[in-house]
Write a structure and sequence with these properties.
Elements lengths: L3 H9 L1 H22 L9 H5 L2 H15 L8 H14 L5 H17 L5 H31 L7 E11 L4 E8 L13 E6 L8 E6 L9 E6 L11 H9 L5 E5 L15 E6 L3 H14 L5 E7 L8 H10 L3 E7 L4 H5 L5 E2 L4 H7 L6 E5 L2 H13 L7 E4 L8
Parallel strand pairs: 7-8, 7-11, 8-9, 9-10, 11-12
Antiparallel strand pairs: 1-2, 1-6, 2-5, 3-4, 3-6
Helix pairs in contact: 1-7, 2-4, 2-6, 5-7, 6-7
Enzyme class: oxidoreductase
GO biological process, one term: response to toxic substance
GO molecular function, one term: heme binding
């Protein structure tokens, strides 16, 4: 337990963190990777370059400081991050290294304002928070290893099928190389994929949602090839998977992880809303619902630029034909002439509240959504404007947690 004095000091630093949080976390990563370059094998370099990781850590530190007197309030966030840590292979021995460099970064950025009392309070607070993560993650490692077909850290899987789903998305069907069982997972979860790319000094780890229902003799991931854009470089791992991993190839996978999971006990209508490659966990949920709970109504809404990059369209439409409880709607931002000619979509532009109210029969539904952050902000804003309770709004970020 933290003393009242420590809690008071930590809370007094909240305004400072609001202003300097990202500068502190940026300095933290500089110090961390200078002193421990081996950790570059764990962290996503692209998220570092784009500042996403720094922002996510700053938000986490800020939230911890705000709620330091009732850390149970941030337990859901701890669990979400712990899932990611377990899938990456973060270990207890990493936490003292992180703590040491975080305190050094606070001192570097705040200078004389970082008094001994403040640094001591943050050292104590970090110890409590780190212990919480270590405890939660220890349970997750045991659960991942001891489940039927489970394993610790990374295990080799063989690619038995490679299927192009659209101009930019390809699915990989994966089975354990040792011929063992495929561990169970919850619809919405992901696996981490670890690759060594020729010419790259570090290994790279990325998370990909499992895009088919549990209970199959394989895992399926559906990967969008992230080509170079003005605002970011090409995705090293996605391009490598598309261009170099063929049927018969081997990938290293973590056991399934993630706190974004379909609540299968809820009998109400479920609304699955996706943008771009955010449809992968939604297809897993849909495939599960039509077999495990065929009486539950499902509205499946997907937003894409156009039909050329719309993955798994035929599969979802076929499910809707076979199952009367499933309704599907497509929203294309920039439909092609062919899309227009074939009337291949239901709305042009972006998903908005007025259209959601037209196609979703009732707001008394469970809403799940995933996609690029601007898309998720728009969907989240629309649902809240409609009065959907927070408990019925579920979403997943690709990469470090952001803020909606």
């Amino acid at each position: 337990m933290l003393s009242e004095k420590t809690i008071s000091i930590i809370k007094s630093t909240v305004p400072v963190l609001e202003v300097h949080g990202t500068a502190i976390t940026k300095r933290f990563y500089e110090l961390l990777f200078t002193g421990h370059p081996e950790l570059l094998n764990v962290f996503n370099h692209a998220n570092q370059k784009q500042g996403k990781q720094q922002t996510a850590l700053a938000n986490a530190v800020y939230a911890a400081a705000q709620h330091i007197d009732r850390l149970e309030a941030i337990l859901p966030a701890v669990k979400q991050i712990a899932h990611k840590h377990r899938s990456l292979g973060v270990k207890p021995e990493h936490y003292p290294i992180v703590g040491q460099n975080l305190l050094a970064a606070i001192k570097d950025v705040l200078g004389e304002a970082a008094t001994e009392d403040i640094l001591q309070a943050w050292a104590e607070a970090y110890g409590v928070i780190a212990d919480a993560f270590i405890s939660v993650e220890a349970d997750m490692y045991v659960q991942a290893k001891e489940q039927h077909g489970g394993w610790a850290e990374f295990k080799p899987f063989r690619v038995v099928r490679k299927v192009q789903e659209s101009d930019v998305t390809t699915s990989f069907y994966l089975v354990p190389q040792d011929g063992g069982a495929v561990a169970a997972f919850e619809p919405g979860q992901y696996v981490s994929v670890k690759v060594e790319i020729p010419g790259e000094p570090n290994t790279h780890i990325r998370q990909y949602s499992l895009s088919d229902a549990p209970g199959k003799p394989y895992y399926r991931i559906s990967v969008k090839r992230e080509d170079t854009l003005e605002e970011r470089p090409a995705g090293k791992v996605s391009v490598y998977l598309h261009n170099h991993i063929e049927e018969g190839g081997v990938l290293l996978l973590s056991a399934p992880a993630g706190a974004f999971m379909l609540d299968q006990a809820d009998e109400r209508q479920v609304v699955l809303i996706s943008g771009g490659v955010g449809l992968t966990p939604m297809v897993s949920m849909l495939n599960t619902l039509v077999t495990a709970n065929p009486s539950r109504k499902v509205t499946f809404i997907h937003a894409a630029q156009n039909g050329n990059v719309h993955a798994m369209r035929e599969h979802v439409e076929e499910l809707a034909r076979q199952h009367s409880q499933v309704s599907v709607y497509w929203c294309y931002e920039k439909p092609t002439e062919r899309d227009k000619k074939e009337a291949a979509y239901h709305k042009e532009g972006f998903i908005d509240l007025a259209w959601l109210q037209e196609v979703v029969p009732t707001q008394d539904s469970a809403f799940y959504f995933c996609g690029p952050t601007p898309f998720m902000k728009a969907v989240n804003g629309a649902l809240r404007a409609w009065g959907v309770p927070e408990a019925d709004i579920h979403y997943e970020f690709f990469g470090p947690a952001g803020s909606l």
